[in-house]
């Protein structure tokens, strides 16, 4: 049976520590923009923690919401790409083929979650940061769009490992960097085609909602709303 | 019409081709240097990446796409207006058609450059073209950008043919009137035109077919340009009104561009005897109609959004109505409606000066309109955390200015090489053909066919 990768985010557990953001950056060779370019909107973060404030000072409540690619089943980013750089994989991921991307940035405009990022220039890593580059992930050049892959390199490695050991993949065996680094286990990753997996169980929760659900994008990320 | 009048027409309209003043070279040098500056800016952008432009996350489209939509809009001046005027047999059109058709071809060429200029990797633009590659990759036909490619290339081919067909008899005239290398070049371009009855009939038939074919093409082109926006679930982009709104705006800005070009030509090439106040008045009436249509579409778009009260759309709505983009929005309303309306509606004011003032504000207003379609929606997408603001950078501004210089330069050079008013059509008009019903026309054609 093919896999259908999905994620559940428990907003009750998220503390907004941004460990996921840092882990993702290291795992996926995300470029460093620097303060000046970041202020000009050139920073890239495949996952970000959105902060929303409720109430007036001093009774302020902060709400955190980690937002990454929702890996939509009806993704607005896919049909608009004129070169098929942005396309749907068999396992339901919204893949971005960097080699095929010519940088129209149409996908990034069409994405209602703004989780697609453009390489405005060529990436640079100040010494010795280049030593931290992950050899399993390609570095993106100037002019292409990039986005969260659900750490597809880890998914593929996990599948190969299971195949080599002649066994089925276990639930929770594959963990994207953000999931692995989350100290409160707010992020859960797994196979939505397996009804017994934890992510399937959480996705069926009565607290479960999808982000901007009324747009009809059918996201594969489920947010469990705060109870407190 | 006597021979003297024909001679005078030949003389007046071929004069710009024969005589060149120093001002021409100065103008070409000035425009050329502006274009070179723009080209330099593009080279700078090519070597550094779009980091030098003002676009940012999540406002990924801005000035370049504004220019794209604007210039494709201006291109509707020509072919569409001239085709419609031909089809309804408006005799006053004769001195106007070629001025208009040239705008179409050049504005399309300029507009079509922007999807390439704005690319992250412009050197790979040819991946939009469906060509047989050994990797067997094909453009994604579901993408409105792929539709754009086909729409614009069809329109460019069609409008180029539409421009060139009625020049053939004029090329032949120039072949017969000129000497030396000019005679040779025009001789080749005249494609062996001898002015035989058969040739005239073929030309007439071809023009008729092109005039009919180009109208739906023109309408579809700007509809498809609007699809670039309305096919995405972006607040205030995803709208059914965009197709007709874009086409109306395109014809609107196109006529304004045409009036400006005609006024300049009239002054500089001394065409007062050919481009009469009547032409400006008639085009002014068309412009008035389009201004009203534009105002109507804008009102309809805004009212339905406001009444629908969708929270994401309202963020964009208020941003343009009262927020950071409000000064631009109200300038646009002034430029496209409040200033042109009295100038074009009151007969006394619908003079050459009046229509030129109205057209100038409309060109500015329509550029702002395109900008306000592209940017505010991206600046206020669904998640408030991602809201941002856009500020154009020097490269974007220089390239934008360079396109206006490029339009002027191409137009100037064309007017130097080809009479900007169709000589033969003007002469035909002076013969004042009788007004015939279709049945009578058919009888006449029958006569031609049976004649030995």
Q: Would you mind describing this structure in some detail?
A:
The complex is a heterodimer of chains A (228) and B (452). With 228 residues, chain A is α+β, with helices and mostly antiparallel strands. Chain A has a single domain (5-224), classed as Alpha-Beta Plaits (2-Layer Sandwich), CATH 3.30.70.20. Helices cover 21% and strands 19% of the residues of chain A. Chain A is built from 7 helices and 10 strands. In chain A, a hairpin with a 6-residue loop joins β2 and β3 (61-67). The longest helix of chain A is centred in the C-terminal third of the chain and has 13 residues, at 152-164. In chain A, 43% of the residues are buried. Chain B is an all-alpha fold. Chain B contains 18 helices and no strands. Chain B has helices spanning 3-18, 22-48, 63-74, 78-87, 97-117, 144-164, 168-177, 180-189, 197-230, 242-268, 277-308, 311-321, 326-338, 340-345, 352-379, 394-417, 423-430, 438-450. In chain B, α3 packs antiparallel against α15, α4 crosses α9 (197-230) and α5 crosses α10 (242-268). The longest helix of chain B has 34 residues, at 197-230. Chain B is globular, with a radius of gyration of 23 Å. The mean pLDDT of chain B is 92. At the A-B interface, β2 and α4 of A face α6 of B.
């Amino acid at each position: 049976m093919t896999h259908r990768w999905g994620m559940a985010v428990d907003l009750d557990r998220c503390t907004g520590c941004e460990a996921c953001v840092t882990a993702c950056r290291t795992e996926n060779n995300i470029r460093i923009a620097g303060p000046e370019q970041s202020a000009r909107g050139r920073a890239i973060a495949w996952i970000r923690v959105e902060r929303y404030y409720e109430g007036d000072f001093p009774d302020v409540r902060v709400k955190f919401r980690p937002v990454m690619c929702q890996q939509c089943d009806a993704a607005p980013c896919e049909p608009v790409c004129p070169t098929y750089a942005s396309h749907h994989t068999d396992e339901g991921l919204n893949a971005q083929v960097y080699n095929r991307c010519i940088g129209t940035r149409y996908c990034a405009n069409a994405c209602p979650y703004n989780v697609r990022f453009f390489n405005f220039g060529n990436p640079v890593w100040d010494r010795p940061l280049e030593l931290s580059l992950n050899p399993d992930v390609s570095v993106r050049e100037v002019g292409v769009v990039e986005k969260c892959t659900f750490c597809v390199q880890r998914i593929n490695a996990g599948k190969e490992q299971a195949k080599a050991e002649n066994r089925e993949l276990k639930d929770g065996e594959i963990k994207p960097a953000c999931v692995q680094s989350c100290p409160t286990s707010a992020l859960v990753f797994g196979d939505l085609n397996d009804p017994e997996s934890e992510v399937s169980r959480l996705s069926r929760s009565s607290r479960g909602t999808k982000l901007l659900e009324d747009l009809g994008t059918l996201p594969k990320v489920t947010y469990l709303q705060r109870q407190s | 019409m006597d021979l003297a009048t024909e001679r005078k027409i030949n003389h007046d309209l071929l004069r710009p081709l024969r005589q060149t003043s120093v001002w021409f070279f100065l103008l070409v040098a000035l425009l050329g240097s502006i274009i070179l500056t723009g080209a330099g800016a593009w080279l700078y952008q090519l070597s550094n990446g779009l980091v030098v432009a003002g676009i940012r996350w999540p406002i990924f489209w801005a000035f370049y796409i504004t220019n794209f939509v604007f210039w494709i809009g201006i291109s509707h001046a020509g072919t569409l207006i001239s085709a419609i005027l031909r089809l309804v047999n408006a005799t006053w059109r004769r001195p106007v058609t070629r001025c208009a058709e040239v705008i179409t071809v050049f504005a399309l060429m300029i507009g079509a450059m922007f999807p390439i200029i704005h690319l992250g990797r412009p050197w790979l633009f040819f991946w939009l073209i469906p060509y047989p590659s050994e990797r067997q990759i094909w453009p994604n036909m579901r993408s409105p950008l792929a539709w754009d490619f086909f729409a614009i290339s069809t329109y460019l081919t069609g409008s180029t043919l539409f421009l060139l067909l009625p020049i053939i008899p004029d090329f032949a005239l120039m072949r017969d009137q000129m000497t030396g290398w000019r005679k040779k070049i025009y001789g080749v371009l005249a494609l062996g035109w001898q002015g035989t009855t058969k040739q005239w009939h073929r030309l007439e038939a071809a023009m008729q077919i092109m005039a009919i074919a180009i109208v739906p093409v023109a309408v579809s082109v700007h509809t498809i340009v609007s699809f670039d926006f309305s096919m995405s679930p972006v607040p205030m982009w995803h709208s059914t009104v965009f197709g007709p709104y874009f086409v109306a705006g395109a014809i609107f800005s196109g006529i304004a561009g045409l009036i400006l070009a005609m006024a300049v030509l009239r002054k500089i090439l001394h065409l007062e005897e050919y481009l009469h106040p009547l032409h400006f008045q008639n085009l002014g009436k068309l412009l008035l109609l389009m201004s009203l249509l534009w105002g109507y579409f804008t009102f309809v778009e805004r009212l339905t959004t406001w009444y629908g009260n969708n929270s994401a759309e309202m963020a964009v709505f208020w941003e343009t109505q009262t927020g950071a983009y409000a000064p631009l929005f109200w300038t646009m309303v002034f430029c496209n409606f409040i200033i042109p309306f009295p100038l074009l509606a009151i007969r006394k004011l619908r003079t050459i000066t009046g229509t030129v003032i109205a057209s100038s504000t409309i060109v500015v207003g329509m550029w702002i309109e395109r900008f306000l379609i592209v940017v505010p929606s991206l600046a206020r997408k669904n998640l408030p955390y991602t809201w941002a603001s856009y500020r154009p950078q020097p490269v974007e501004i220089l390239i934008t200015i360079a396109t206006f210089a490029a339009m002027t330069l191409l137009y100037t050079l064309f007017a130097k090489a080809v009479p900007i008013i169709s000589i033969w059509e003007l002469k035909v008009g002076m013969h004042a053909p009788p007004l015939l019903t279709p049945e009578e026309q058919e009888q006449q054609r029958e006569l031609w066919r049976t004649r030995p």
